[in-house]
Amino acid sequence: MSTRIPTEVYAEMTPNPATMKFVTNRMLIEGGQQVEFTSKEQCAEASPLADELFNFPFVKAVFISGNFVAVAKDETLGWEMIMQQLRDYIREWLVEHEVAVAFVPEKLQPSATFDENDSEEKRVSSIDYSGMGPTEADEEIKFLLDEFVRPAVEQDGGAIDFKAFHEGKVYVQLRGACSGCPSSMQTLKGGIENLLRSKLDVVQEVVAEEM
Predict the structure, then answer these.
(1) Minimal CA–CA distance to 160: which of 63, 88, 68?
(2) How far is residue 107's CA from residue 163's CA, in Å, rounded to a whole number?
(3) How confident is residue 46, by pLDDT bands cut at 50, 70 and 90?
């Protein structure tokens, strides 16, 4: 008889109306890692929880960070019809399973690079980073993002990853609830860009890559 793991789960709205955050009282992924899956194929062996969630026909993406999983849905059903069902399903799954994320696939890590011969399906970046090498400003930009931006973004069920700094532009990747969020561009320009420009003279603009 398998041991049941006491687990609590509650649902929380995010600024993105298409994404709901399900918060638990236990860690789902270790070491400060985060991972976003946008298809069932990406989950194979990496995350049994995400793999199961993609069995729901309305699920478009699954983002796991710390003690929460953020689920993005399509427009076929409203949250009022599926939120309770999804919350109960996630809780029951976690009661029965200890490991939600076994590992983060290399291609889905924020620092992943993409071969120029990769197919369009494998490429997840809309920006060509070839020729954008490390700069002296990289570490300070990362520090500012980690210190002032990341906590608020994670609270909203998302993530922001530094990708590159080139010719005055800071390139970042938005994941989780931030990806496709109607207010994310306002946050990007009105908050993050203003912060970095006020702290670093070399920064002129912040650009988010499209997923």
Answers:
(1) 63
(2) 14
(3) very high
Structure tokens at 11: 């649902």
pTM for this entry = 0.75
Distance between alpha carbon 55 and the CA centroid of its chain, in Å?
20
Q: Which CATH architecture has domain 9-107?
A: 2-Layer Sandwich (3.30)
Tell me the per-residue pLDDT of 53-78, one tens digit each, with 9 for 90 and over. Answer: 999 999 999 999 999 999 999 999 99
| Parts of the chain belonging to CATH 3.30.1370.70 | 9-107
**Structure letter (DSSP) for residue 189:** I
Contact 79, 86 (CB under 8 A): no
Q: How many Cβ atoms are within 10 Å of 23's Cβ, its own excluded?
A: 17
CATH code 3.30.300.130 region(s) in the chain: 116-209
Q: How many CB atoms lie within 10 A of CB 15?
A: 16
In angstroms, the CA 12 to CA 157 distance is 9
- Would you tell me how many other CB atoms lie within 10 Å of the CB of residue 205? 14
Residue in 41, 34, 91, 114 with CA at minimum distance from that of residue 66:
34
Using DSSP bridges, classify how beta strands 34-37 and 19-24 pair: parallel, antiparallel or unpaired. Answer: unpaired
Distance in angstroms (rounded) separating the CA atoms of residues 21 and 169: 31
The verdict on domain 116-209 having CATH code 3.30.300.130 is yes
Strand partners, 20: 13, 71
